[in-house]
Amino acid sequence: MTASAPTTPYIGRFAPSPTGELHLGSLYTALASYLDARAHGGRWLVRMEDLDPPREQAGAADSILRCLEAHHLPWDGPVVYQSQRQQAYRQALQQLTEAGLTYPCDCNRQRLKQLSAYDGHCLRHPPQGQPAAIRVRATGNCQISFEDLFQGPQQEDVAERVGDFVVRRKDGLFAYQLAVVVDDIAQGITHIVRGYDLLDSSGRQHYLFGLFGQQPPHMGHLPVLVNDDGQKLSKQTFAEPLDPGLANVNLFRCLHALGQHPPSELRHEPASTLLQWGIDHWLRQRVPHQAHLYARDMMTLA
Q1: What residues contact residue 236 under an 8 Å CB cut-off, 6+ apart?
Q2: Is 227 exposed, middle or buried (0-12, 13-18, 19+ CB in 10 A)?
Q3: Confidence of residue 275 (pLDDT cuts 50, 70, 90)
Q4: Which H or E run contains 167?
Q5: Which DSSP state fits 125?
Q6: Which of 45, 87, 151, 245 is most buried when burial is the number of CB atoms within 10 A of its CB?
Q7: Whole-angstrom Cα distance, residue 271 to residue 175?
Q8: What distances in angstroms separate CA 83 from CA 2, 13, 187, one per listed residue?
């Protein structure tokens, strides 16, 4: 299935997971998403992907929102919290189940690690007990192709590369792949700007959009900011929280990492001035076409 372009007005979104405070890698993604939306006269929404309570940090969601405000990144409408959207996910799963597209799976991690793509074992040998995950069948037209906003043409056969995939986990939590698609449909998202590390989720998400009879959004995947060891900046890799008092410095560095190259005389201007320059001069084709960038290369700026 080939994704065609949405024709409705631009609606973008930033969807952080509240596992820690906002760091440079998160701001860089938020800024790209914000600039792409505003430069195209669009709306920019914020959604908290708080689907996994054991991984979340108390107070992180509020801290992220305060940090976005400190960097003069205002969002449109109310913040959506996935933890409050469970009924919508249950209804979506029920829709897939009634269409005969799901089945339970109790395969353990050791078995799954031996597979390059899921082999349908539990479809042929249904588990008798609980707990079990729920998989959606990758069947029919699983050929996905789309033009990434930053990385160019993408193609994937979901059945061949992934196979039937999990939409509800063994612990009863809904999988990211299902929740994000359900929410993007509900919010009318037309454009998604996010990190390169999520590019391999795009095929499954395009496939789910098709199962729900919806057009997938445009997607653009940015190079991921990594530390000196090549690890993505995150709470797990001890990425330092942003200092809101250095909003202009942080934004100046992120604009450079995004290939926009603001003039040096702007480095000490207020954050609002930098953002307006970014909106006025935003060009997608300047964003680097690669998988990652080293955060250390940004530290010499400003």
Answers
A1: none
A2: middle
A3: very high
A4: strand 165-168
A5: S
A6: 45
A7: 36
A8: 32, 17, 16
- In whole angstroms, how far apart are CA 215 and each of 182, 202, 218, 275? 12, 13, 9, 31
Q: Is 113 helix (H, G, I), strand (E, B) or coil?
A: coil
3-class state of residue 148 by DSSP? strand
Contact 214, 4 (CB under 8 A): no
Q: Chain-centre distance of CA 238, in angstroms?
A: 20
Largest CA distance in the chain: 67
Burial class (CB in 10 A: 0-12, 13-18, 19+), 170: middle
Residue type, 120: G
Query: Angle at the Cα of 116 (from 113 to 119), degrees rounded to 5?
Result: 90
By the 8 A CB rule, do 23 and 57 touch?
no
Is residue 226 within 8 Å of residue 233, measured between CB atoms? yes
User: Following DSSP, what letter does each residue of 38-80 receive, concatenated?
Assistant: HHTT-EEEEEE----GGG--TTHHHHHHHHHHHTT---SSPPE
Give the model's pLDDT for residue 227: 87
Q: What is the mean pLDDT of the chain?
A: 93
Measured from the Cβ of residue 159, the count of other Cβ atoms closer than 10 Å reads 20
The answer to whether the CB of 145 falls within 8 A of the CB of 155 is yes
User: H helices within 99-201, ranges in order?
Assistant: 109-112, 121-124, 158-161, 176-187
Count of other CB atoms within 10 angstroms of residue 75: 20
Q: Enter the tokens of residue 26.
A: 């998160």
Measured at the CA of 295, the angle between CA 292 and CA 300, to 5 degrees, comes to 135
The token duo for 250 is: 């942080």
**Count of CA atoms in the C-beta half-sphere (13 A) of 274:** 29
Q: Measured between alpha carbons, how far is 197 from 180 in angstroms, rounded to an integer?
A: 15
Would the pTM count as exceeding 0.85? Answer: yes
Q: How far is CA 180 from CA 37, 117, 149, 176, in A?
A: 19, 22, 19, 6
